[in-house]
């Protein structure tokens, strides 16, 4: 009956389309076995029309005017299909033929992948790469994103700073550090869900990019399915609940389309102890069709959030308290309170103009403005010991490192405690989980502050804060303009031109958040008395008010500015069995810092720096050789330069205008060759790749409490710097990422597929870069500079850290004809390392400060033993996913669920960093040989078994 109705409708509408000189576009949908696919949604983009295929897989659009079009075909359990076609003036019927949809369990399900980050005391952070890895048609990238990305696996060992994330033609890369803040649109999964991707260093139509993919997200209001979509999710990750509602009007007869969405994610306590999550997100899209050749869109994206973060810890602490331990919180009057709270609100406003110039040319122009503040709180203190429960003097290992026959000084109660007893008391408290020892004691911090006697400081009388909370604030203003031009010379040749301009301004400062019962805090260096005797110690000399209250700025205040222009022409053409894509880059940037505080140690702390200008050039190419319709060879090559980001250029921006010595543009040379099979029963990609990076400047900043470094000024006065915020800089770093990838998908029977992935790499440092050291508390060294040369860091052939260099996955998926599915996979990781600390591998590390010669009796085998690479344990995981969809009249319901780490493996270390406290070999070796080192590496562990359940309702 339905087949007859389809034929009747076809022949009924055909004469009408002829009469009005317009076209009927039609096609048939089938699976890989040739069976019709019914009830698939087909959206005609830019037209506001959407239809549903009938029971023989047939669909059609009538009264389609001449022009260039795109359709998006969606069906539960199948990959989303995007097709483009042209309708000419003389065509009455446009037959798109038979369109094949491939089964895909994962891309049709909102995986609910959370971006998990942790900020630690030392300024290090770790971010899951899930946000960067998007699903694509490629089986390797799909598995890497949905199954391996959750465990911080980065394909080819490339971090996100070398990629490009675009939203409506605008780059979302922050020019201070090259990262992307996915929280700016967090929770809007249904809006930003189906991006276009050029993987790795392959050329893209939208931007030149880098070597970790170009991801282009489009949010045109007319391109969403008409109607409502409600989603409810439950999980045990950073947040526990997610609720969202989206409505799209489609394009109406007057040429208007509206899409609006709101979402919330929240948790009173996440999977990590003492963490909470509260984030809202909203989207408003308005589109106006001015004519058949002209569309205008307006988008607002706003995602305010407030959440707490979790700490990394040493192995000693994890042994006592487990992998969910978090040192950043404690009880205040019986309620949990965290010192590390991130909150921000940086809305994005965008206008985009789509102009179809003629049949062969089109121009897209985007204007964007983003502003707002991002805050991160932390506990600070002056002239008292670090109150963190994981401070090395608060752990059992500290007491164990001391003379067991010695005694602690008498406490407030007058009792003298022996070291053996102190060790046993501390060990008992940590193993039993005494919150007065293992967590922050907020009540005690308030008590210490309120018990302070009143005093007069810089003309103000009151109680000076020993402990207080601060917010590190980033106040951003980002203006972008970009344009995307396309000209089709013919069916096989296309010219592309992208141009962009970004004006980035960010004011960064610290302000008082909570005085914890005190009246004010001093804007003065608490270590000045010991590190810089005789100096004022003022962070802002000459200011009227040194005593700071809530909302006042202290410690640092400066402005980053950067302007960047990029021109990116490209050419795509086909000849014979070859498809070729060539893309070029010319770019220019100018960067500066303006200090607003007059730091007591640095003459160049206040005022505007020199403008630092850099030119960038690049070339990318892709060649596809088609053996036949199912077998291909693909080559991708890239050679380009990248100017340093602001935080790489200015090595210590909180206190001065100093730039990294010998800084140059980083140069990347990336190549890969792939063999690809794409058939109904076998999909495979086998790739070999080589990525060389040179001229890289690597800056690491951390707080070192316990470091001991001698500083001599130009007068010969020596100072022992013991505690400070320090900077480590390596220049002219050379790295090599070499390896092979295999992704395979085999259809055993029509409803069952097997999938596999192999990633084998060697990611190493290729030279011994020169290393420099700077410190907030050291001032200008005897060389007249604010940094000192420590010589070469001997890290050649050390493995790079941050990701497993071996990864394997094997899984299956069963797709029932009755619209339910089930899948699972096994994953294994190996060759995961911590990045080597440069400071403890320099010439200075092994030299006696008195003789400037290597330490006596220091042998090469002993040095290698102490400084051997920090390899992390291998691990395996099992994941599973399941889902079911229903169509009830006009209503569509989808349930899906995933479970990661079913075996509850809590031994996997996802990353971490080597602490740098002992900067000389004897002290380092002594500490390294203890059962629990006082300054051992800090780790992040996997969070154990996790789940995500999702219910979606469309009406």
Automatic annotation (TrEMBL):
Which InterPro entries does this UniProt record tie to the protein?
Beta-barrel_TonB_sf, CarboxyPept-like_regulatory
Tell me, in one coarse class, where this protein mainly resides.
membrane
Q: What is this protein called?
A: Carboxypeptidase regulatory-like domain-containing protein
Quote the Gene3D superfamilies the UniProt record gives.
Carboxypeptidase-like, regulatory domain, TonB-dependent receptor, beta-barrel domain
Statement: the UniProt record of this protein carries the keyword Transmembrane helix = no
Recite the UniProt keywords alphabetically. Cell outer membrane, Membrane, Signal
Query: Which residues belong to the signal peptide in this entry?
Result: 1-27
Annotated localization = Cell outer membrane
């Amino acid at each position: 009956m339905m087949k007859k109705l389809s034929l009747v409708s076809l022949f009924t509408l055909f004469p009408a389309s002829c009469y009005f000189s317009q076209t009927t576009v039609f096609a048939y949908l089938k699976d890989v076995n040739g069976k019709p696919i019914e009830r698939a949604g087909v959206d005609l983009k830019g037209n506001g029309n959407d239809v549903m295929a009938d029971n023989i897989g047939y669909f059609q659009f009538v009264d389609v005017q001449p022009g260039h079009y795109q359709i998006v075909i969606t069906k539960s359990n199948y990959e989303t299909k995007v097709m483009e076609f042209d309708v000419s003036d003389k065509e009455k019927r446009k037959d798109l033929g038979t369109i094949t949809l491939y089964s895909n369990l994962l891309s049709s399900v909102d995986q609910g992948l959370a971006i998990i980050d942790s900020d630690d005391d030392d300024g290090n952070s770790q971010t899951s790469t899930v946000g960067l890895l998007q699903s694509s048609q490629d089986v390797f990238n799909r598995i890497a994103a949905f199954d391996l990305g959750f465990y911080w696996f980065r394909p080819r060992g490339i971090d996100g700073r070398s990629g490009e994330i675009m939203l409506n033609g605008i780059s979302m890369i922050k020019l201070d550090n090259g990262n992307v803040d996915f929280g700016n649109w967090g929770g809007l999964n249904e809006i930003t869900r189906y991006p276009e991707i050029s993987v790795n260093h392959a050329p893209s139509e939208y931007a030149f990019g880098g070597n970790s993919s170009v991801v282009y997200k489009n949010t045109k209001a007319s391109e969403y399915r008409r109607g409502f979509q409600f989603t409810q999710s439950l999980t045990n990750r950073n947040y526990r609940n997610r609720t969202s509602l989206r409505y799209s009007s489609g394009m109406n007869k007057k040429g208007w389309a509206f899409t609006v969405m709101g979402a919330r994610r929240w948790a009173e306590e996440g999977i990590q102890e003492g963490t909470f999550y509260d984030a809202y997100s909203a989207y408003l899209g308005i589109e106006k069709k001015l004519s058949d050749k002209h569309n205008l869109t307006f988008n607002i994206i706003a995602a305010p959030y407030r959440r707490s973060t979790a700490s990394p810890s040493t192995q000693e602490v994890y042994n006592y308290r487990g992998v969910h331990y978090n040192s950043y919180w404690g009880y205040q009057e019986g309620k949990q309170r965290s010192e590390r709270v991130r909150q921000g609100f940086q809305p994005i406003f965008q206008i985009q103009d789509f102009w179809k110039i003629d049949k062969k040319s089109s121009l897209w122009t985007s204007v964007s403005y983003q502003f707002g503040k991002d805050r991160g709180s932390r506990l600070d203190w002056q002239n008292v010991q670090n109150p963190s429960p994981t401070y090395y003097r608060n752990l059992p290992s500290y007491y164990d490192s001391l003379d067991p026959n010695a005694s602690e000084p008498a406490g407030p109660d007058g009792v003298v405690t022996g070291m053996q007893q102190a060790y046993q008391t501390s060990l008992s408290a940590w193993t039993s989980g005494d919150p007065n020892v293992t967590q922050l004691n907020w009540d005690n911090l308030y008590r210490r502050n309120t018990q302070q006697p009143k005093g007069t400081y810089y003309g103000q009388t009151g109680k000076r804060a020993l402990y207080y909370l601060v917010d590190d604030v980033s106040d951003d203003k980002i203006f972008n303009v970009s344009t995307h031009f396309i000209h089709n010379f013919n069916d096989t040749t296309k010219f592309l031109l992208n141009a962009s301009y970004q004006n980035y301004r960010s004011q960064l400062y610290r302000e008082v958040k909570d005085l914890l019962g005190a009246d004010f805090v001093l804007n003065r260096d608490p270590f000045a008395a010991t590190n810089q005797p005789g100096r004022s110690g003022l962070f802002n000399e000459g200011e009227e008010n040194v005593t700071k209250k809530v909302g006042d700025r202290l410690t640092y205040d400066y402005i980053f500015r950067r302007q960047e222009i990029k021109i990116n022409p490209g050419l795509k053409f086909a000849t014979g069995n070859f498809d070729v894509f060539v893309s070029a880059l010319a770019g220019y940037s100018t960067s500066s810092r303006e200090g607003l505080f007059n730091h007591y140690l640095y003459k160049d702390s206040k005022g505007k720096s020199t403008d630092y200008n850099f030119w960038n050039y690049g070339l990318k190419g892709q060649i596809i050789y088609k053996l036949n319709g199912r077998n291909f060879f693909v080559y991708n090559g890239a050679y380009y330069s990248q100017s340093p980001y602001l935080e790489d250029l200015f090595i210590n921006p909180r206190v001065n205008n100093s730039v990294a010595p010998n800084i140059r543009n980083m140069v990347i040379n990336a190549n890969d060759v792939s063999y690809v099979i794409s058939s109904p029963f076998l999909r495979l990609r086998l790739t070999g790749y080589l990525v060389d990076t040179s001229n890289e400047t690597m800056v690491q900043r951390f707080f070192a409490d316990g470091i001991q470094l001698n500083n001599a000024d130009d007068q010969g006065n020596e100072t022992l710097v013991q505690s400070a915020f320090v900077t480590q800089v390596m220049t002219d770093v050379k790295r090599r990422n070499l390896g092979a990838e295999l992704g395979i998908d085999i259809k055993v029977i029509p409803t069952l597929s097997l999938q596999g992935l192999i990633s084998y790499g060697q990611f190493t440092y290729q030279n011994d870069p020169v290393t420099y050291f700077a410190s907030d508390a050291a001032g200008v060294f005897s060389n007249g500079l604010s940094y000192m040369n420590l010589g070469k860091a001997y890290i050649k052939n050390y493995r790079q850290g941050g990701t497993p260099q071996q990864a394997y996955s094997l899984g299956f998926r069963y797709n029932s004809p009755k619209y339910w599915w089930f899948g699972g996979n096994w994953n294994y990781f190996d060759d995961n390392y911590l990045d080597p600390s440069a400071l403890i591998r320099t010439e200075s590390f092994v030299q006696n400060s008195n003789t400037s010669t290597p330490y006596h009796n220091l042998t090469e085998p002993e040095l290698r033993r102490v400084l051997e690479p920090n390899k992390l344990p291998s691990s395996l995981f099992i994941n599973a996913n399941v889902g079911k969809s229903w169509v009830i009249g006009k209503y569509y319901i989808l349930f899906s669920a995933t479970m990661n780490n079913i075996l509850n493996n809590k031994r996997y270390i996802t990353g971490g960093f080597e602490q740098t406290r002992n900067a000389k070999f004897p002290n380092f070796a002594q500490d390294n040989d203890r059962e629990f080192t006082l300054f051992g590496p800090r780790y992040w562990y996997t969070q154990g078994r996790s789940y995500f359940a999702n219910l979606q309702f469309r009406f």
